[in-house]
Request: fold
Amino acid sequence: MSDAVLRTFVAVPLPAPVRAALGDLSARIRTGGLRGRWVPPENLHLTLAFLGDTEARAVAPIRAALTRAAAGCQAFDLTPAGLGVFPGPRRPRVLWVGLQGGLEALGALAEAVGSALAAIGFPLPRRGAVGHLTLARAKEVFDPEALAAVFQRHGGFAGPPFHVHRIVLYRSQLGAGPARYSPLAEAALGAAGAPFTTGGEP
Ligand code: ATP
Ligand code: MG
Reply:
């Protein structure tokens, strides 16, 4: 099965209290009547790079590249704050919570990950705008009136600050219902030579 293909992405896992606060926000927005596909709280994460189809045999070199990238970046703090939509207000398809705090460090981390993957010949991963936490996706677009009410009511949302100290390569399995993510590799920030681990609580 060494030529098996996995759907993968690199992300910062969110601590349980952050997922709980965002899950609570999602529940309140959903109860308020906005229709969409809601990310289950356990799936909430901060995407750094989407690799998509990845040969299983590429996982080991990717793990090594992520370890190098992470080792060269210092840990930093982020605070979930505010709401936004992608691709923009005229066509709102993705509802997200923004981030404040170490945004420069976050950008540098995403750059380091992208460069490390490019250096091993992995096609440069497609990177969306880094720095958002997706809550929900509309089937087509969100209802504008319902969305306006959400921004009015919850636009000032702020979640608990969290410490970014590791990145994880996840496998994503799509099917009926929400995607299923499973960790394939993990790398610690600012820890040159740290051992790899897999699995574990995000
Ligand atoms: P679903 O596709 O069922 O809504 P999902 O988007 O959570 O679930 P994936 O599509 O596997 O699962 O995506 C995994 C992560 O990668 C998510 O954070 C997603 O936003 C991001 N992602 C997916 N496709 C792309 C892409 N083409 N460009 C940038 N990021 C992507
Ligand atoms: Mg998707």
Remarks:
- The helical segments are 16-31, 59-71, 103-119, 144-154.
